[in-house]
Amino acid sequence: MPFAIDIQEDEILGWGHEILDNLLADRTMGENIIWATDDYASRGEGYQSFDSIQVAAITGENNHIIQPRIRKPLEEQRKRIDEKAEVFTPAWICNAQNNLIDKAWFQTDQDVFNRETHEDGIHGWKMTDVLPEYPKGKNWKKYVSDPRLEMACGEAPYLCSRYDATTGELIEIGRRIGLLDRKLQLVNRNTPDITPEHNAKQRKNLHKIWRRAAYKALQSTYAFEYQGDNLLLARESVLATFIEFYQAKWNTDKLPDKECLKKAAEIISWNLWQMDGLKQGIPGYTPSEDLQGNLFDETPPREKYCRIKEWTSIEPLKGEEVVFKTMLHERLKKK
């Protein structure tokens, strides 16, 4: 059953403390992500811009503090637009831009996952039944593992389209258009289904095949965001998307097991990270330029360049920690 727009932190806490801990983790600092906004400062200690977001600050009686933009008062929305240039993108625009990425990847002028529509002045899309042929040397596994990055992601509408960020309209799973949605659509289409003929051992193995492919989709999906509340909403949305595609694949309302959710949350905590996109460090701090992104520097955690992971295995979950700035510069040099 699809999640509501606003996923409650109390609900996530009920899945296991480690899962919410992962969604709050900042892998560069070794602490939790910070608020990086004064919007909550009137609440006092623990809610200032440079304070880390703690579990107790957003659960229990504080469970409804962090809300998606569409649920925030209009005055607060306008304030964020004025002070942070926070503007969220309609789903149809996200879709149109994501479609350009797919046409380039498939090397085609054909519609790939959907056809854009414009009827009675309303933009939308219609899903396609059949994908174009894969170019030579490419297949669905290559598509799933190719990296995608959303910059200054807000609530990550380009990655996962559970709802239209500008209207609050829920989008059913069969019509989703995010970059991660597309990867998981291919995972669900191309991994084997369970039939009545499968025994318990075979069913367990089929779940493992899906799980490994879905982890790969998460491992290749990246985003960064400045404000801590937006980042948490984005992380929650990505985890919810993972769960919803799991439920759709196996026709169940049950959650994946706790270990599966924990691994997914760990990947998400590395791949969706908090960063000032101009300085490539923790918001409000200036990284030391003379260190040039050295992984082994002794700089205070909040003054380091941001770290992410390039994943090397799925089970066991392993990856190489890299400095985003260094990795980006190296890849730009190669081009």
Brief overview:
By secondary structure, the protein is α/β, with parallel strands linked by helices. It has eleven helices and nine strands.
Which helices and strands, and how do they pair?
Blueprint: H1 9-15, H2 17-24, E1 25-26, E2 31-32, H3 55-58, H4 74-84, H5 91-106, E3 114-119, E4 122-127, H6 140-145, E5 148-150, H7 179-190, H8 200-219, E6 221-225, H9 228-250, H10 258-271, E7 272-274, E8 307-313, E9 318-323, H11 324-334
Parallel strand pairs: 5-6, 6-7
Antiparallel strand pairs: 1-2, 3-4, 8-9
Helix pairs in contact: 1-2, 2-10, 7-8, 7-9, 8-10, 9-10
Number of strands: 9
Rounded mean pLDDT is 92
Strand order of the largest sheet: 5-6-7
Order of helices and strands: HHEEHHHEEHEHHEHHEEEH
Radius of gyration: 20 Å
Low-confidence stretches: none
Shape: globular
N-end to C-end Cα span? 44 Å
Instruction: Note the total helix count.
Output: 11
